Amino acid sequence: MSNRHYSVKEQDVEKFNSKLLSISNARDEGDWKSIPHTHPFTELFFVSDGKGSFLFDQTTHSIYPGDLVIIPPYTEHTERSLPNQPLEYYVLGIDGISFLASDKTTGQIICNFNDDTSIFNLFRQMLQEIRNSQYGSEAICQRLLEILILKIIRSKHLIPVSINSVRITKECAQIKEYLDVNYANRITLDTLTNLTHMNKYYMVHSFTRYAGLSPIQYLNRRRLEIACHLLESSNHSISDISSLTGFSSQSYFTQTFRKAFGMTPVMYRQTHGETAPS
């Protein structure tokens, strides 16, 4: 008799607060047009058959069977099939976690698992469990999700990032309030990440979706709003207004102002100031 015995050791594996929100399986039958859209949670999009393209904002990527597309919260995206090669795919909606590439430059990731059938099987098992809806199906799907996350991180060397869609909205509002009040101070992206304890990439991306402008763009707009008010209602010099509104120099203030309004601060004061001709 041959017998092999392996002891199971407890490993210090990071605990993820990931929560499975939804599971779906679809095949592009050409009966509806996929349009760019966003979600407040992370999506895992797995291609099981067909070929096509995946659109992130302004970039397009070819996708094939075995490709896993990781879509961060609030990222505009859609998919398109190639003619006569309709995409078939699984989609998981998950809250509490997303991923960064190892260089931390992006949260939009496409990786291929064509040589690892266990990934496809995990998606298929989750769909089967939720369809059958038997005792413990939700708990089993949640455990399968945890296995899937660990396998993705281990095989593709991705960096897990803890997030929460509710927290994102709350902390984006906190960033906006901070910028509204502290516009005169020197503020960097590091200032805002230290304030919210969010990953820098997700902080910028989430705030842009929340406010329609990046944090720095919003800050400059706020500064320009205050500068316009001071130009209209005060006798402060251009240099003083530049300093009072947080611009690093008068020349940068003038450059930014001209780009925004098509005129210099001096010209704006002449046109809109209290002493301007009516």
Automatic annotation (TrEMBL):
Q: State what protein this is by name.
A: AraC family transcriptional regulator
> Which segments of the protein form a coiled coil according to its record?
none
Q: Which Pfam families match?
A: AraC_binding, HTH_18
List residues of the HTH araC/xylS-type domain: 173-271
Lineage of the native species? Bacteria, Bacillati, Bacillota, Clostridia, Lachnospirales
What PROSITE patterns does UniProt report for this protein, alphabetically? HTH_ARAC_FAMILY_1, HTH_ARAC_FAMILY_2
Q: Give UniProt keywords alphabetically.
A: DNA-binding, Transcription, Transcription regulation
In the record, what terms sit under GO molecular function? DNA-binding transcription factor activity; sequence-specific DNA binding
Query: Which InterPro entries does the UniProt record give?
Result: AraC-bd, Homeodomain-like_sf, HTH-like, HTH_AraC, HTH_AraC-typ_CS, RmlC-like_jellyroll, Tscrpt_reg_AraC-type_HTH
Q: Report whether Translocase shows up as a keyword of the record.
A: no
